[in-house]
Specification:
eleven-stranded mixed β-sheet, 37% helix, 17% strand
């Protein structure tokens, strides 16, 4: 096995490319008939006649497959999924929208900033599900109904106790600068929305020397947290510098030797959000999906499958750490968080840190 997983393939859209494409878009460039508006509730009888719902996402594929089975069992609506990272999904969606040929109905995105850009460009359908009342304002678009958080992704430190003892393991983010971890730290690459969220939350918390010191540590870039976990488990890398906390929950359920650290400086949290593409060909099925995934049952089933905290106030997942027990870091300025300039700053820095 090579020491790192490959970066995105040559020619694959980067976050910078995605944002440049967004900057060139105007609402007038969209085909007629896809302007979003507040939508009425789902007609389930009609939804079952609309055909197979198409769901794009950037989550663990097996998790979404399992959740869609539950959705179909509960509603009678067939659904298929496609795992597609934002760097590929956004340019593809823009091309399809311009051509008036998009077949995607639901988009589940780990980068709420990019999702809000879709809202601004009138590419999301506004649907105020009755389930929105159970979510606090910070988990919903403004105005509500364009996108809503369906899970909370914590970016924590991880290691395998077979290769790193608890005594030696990093206890804080600053501990990653210990020379013993040079070339032994894994992060996701710059195309990952959760990696951007991690950096954004910590950029004002950690001193400038952390970022310069991290560059000299020569961390490795991976395409997903699953790949980072695999490297920890096979001993080819020692420290997961930012791994989705649900990976620990899954490992613990299988009694694996993975340990998690929530550093005292704080643990960045990224909201994964879901919305309906305005050009959907299956509007009733799409609204039924939003109703279900945001419902108490849907939130319990999805987050139990994935092992993540729910943004819904009345849902608790067994074995998942309570957010009240962790110092959670979230963006305080959402407009800055989603800005092109801030994303470009991250891409430049992160590619330098990871040597890409």
């Amino acid at each position: 096995m090579p020491k790192t997983e490959p970066h995105p393939s040559p020619g694959a859209p980067s976050r910078r490319t995605v944002l440049a494409g967004f900057g060139a878009l105007t609402a007038a460039a969209l085909p007629l008939g896809v302007r979003p508006a507040a939508a009425a509730g789902a007609d389930l009888a009609q939804a079952r006649k609309e055909g197979t719902l198409v769901v794009w996402h950037s989550d663990q594929e097996a998790d979404v497959v399992n959740f869609l089975k539950v959705f179909t069992e509960r509603t009678g609506i067939p659904a298929i999924q496609q795992r597609i990272l934002p760097g590929v999904a956004m340019p593809k969606l823009q091309a399809e929208m311009r051509a008036g040929s998009s077949d995607v109905d639901i988009y589940m995105n780990a980068d709420p900033g990019l999702m809000d850009l879709l809202r601004e460009r009138e590419q999301l359908l506004r649907y105020e599900s009755p389930e929105l009342a159970a979510f606090s304002p910070e988990f919903k678009s403004v105005p509500p109904g364009y996108w809503t958080a369906y899970c909370i992704n914590l970016g924590a430190l991880m290691y395998d106790t077979r290769y790193v003892t608890p005594a030696d393991a990093p206890k804080s983010w600053m501990d990653l600068l210990d020379p013993r971890w040079k070339d032994q730290i894994g992060f996701q690459n710059a195309a990952a929305g959760t990696q951007y969220g991690w950096w954004y939350a910590l950029r004002g918390v950690l001193p400038p020397q952390f970022w310069t010191g991290l560059t000299t540590q020569k961390p490795r870039a991976y395409a997903s947290s699953t790949q980072i976990l695999s490297a920890l488990q096979n001993g080819s890398m020692k420290i997961g510098g930012k791994v989705s906390a649900y990976q620990y929950v899954k490992a613990a359920r299988e009694k694996q030797t993975i340990a998690v650290v929530y550093p005292p400086e704080g643990t960045p949290a990224t909201n994964h959000v879901v919305g309906i593409i305005s050009a959907t060909k299956r509007p009733n099925a799409a609204k039924a999906y939003i109703d279900f995934i945001l419902s108490q049952e849907g939130q319990t089933r999805f987050n139990d499958i994935q092992g993540s905290p729910s943004a819904r106030r009345d849902v608790t997942i067994p074995g998942v750490a309570s957010l009240s027990d962790i110092k959670v870091l979230v963006p305080e300025n959402f407009e800055d968080f989603k800005s092109n300039a801030r994303h470009a700053e991250f891409v430049t820095l992160w590619n330098k840190i990871t040597g890409f």
